[in-house]
Amino acid sequence: NEGQTLRIRLVRYAGNRRLLVARDMTHIQKLERMRQDFVANVSHELRTPLTVITGYLEAMIDDEPDERCVVPLQSMQEQSERMRRLVEDLMLLARLESDEPNDAARVVDIPELVAQVVSQAKTLSGVEGHRFEVHIENTLCLVGVKSELFSAFSNLVFNAVRYTPAGGSIQVDWVRENETGLFSVTDSGPGIEAQHIPRLTERFYRVDAGRSRARGGTGLGLAIVKHVLLRHQGRLEIDSEPGRGSRFGCRFPESQLRSCKSAKAL
Ligand code: ADP
Questions:
Q1: I need a labelling partner for 184 at 20 to 30 A (CA). Which of 97, 160, 174, 232 fits?
Q2: The Histidine kinase domain covers which part of the protein (predicted)?
Q3: What are phi and psi of 38, to 5 degrees?
């Protein structure tokens, strides 16, 4: 029927026999779309009240408040900032999950974008002072949506800063490897136990929820990375071992790679 979605699989069983299995996905897809729309609408509706609250809080803090109010006001400001980040990430995820095509795709100057991400990560690292090592292949660019790639790469580098203890090392690479483009972030942080790795890109999945919240995480970072990569024919690679650090890689196929001359000409 028109508008109906079937998932068809060919299953081999009992030696050489084959079975064609058709599953009607229409209802599941409809529910999934309703979930996506609901999340997108709720996050959109929360944005305006949040802007008003933050505005008033800022004004009250600037206004030299009564001594007893300073700590509560600062705490309210921190929490509303956390909520703002959450709402922004939910809205971005809803946009990435929707079927809207990548019509803003063009050649993106990845060397420049990676340099920007690293510069912001150094600011985030601040006095904690991580050791950064950066390798960028300056002639290698990528077809894609700049803002989406920025979100994906910055989530990975900021995670490295957030989870790696002060003084640890963070290596950021953008290189050509075996006909693919590879962006990777390697840190000397705590590492992740193998059983958690397959679930890391689920929304709100955290190995240690308290630590994630304390470090300013929304729990949506790796879900965003996964969806950005899906929209760029990319693949996420995660290698990690407890006590030895982690490596998160974004691998892009040859078909997405371009020489940077075309990006600079824009
Ligand atoms: P969060 O906002 O909680 O960081 P993410 O989706 O970005 O959410 O990451 C999911 C979880 O993966 C984190 O809560 C953390 O437990 C783990 N994680 C992500 N990056 C790293 C890293 N570089 N080192 C150790 N653990 C990490």
A1: 97
A2: 41-256
A3: -60, -50
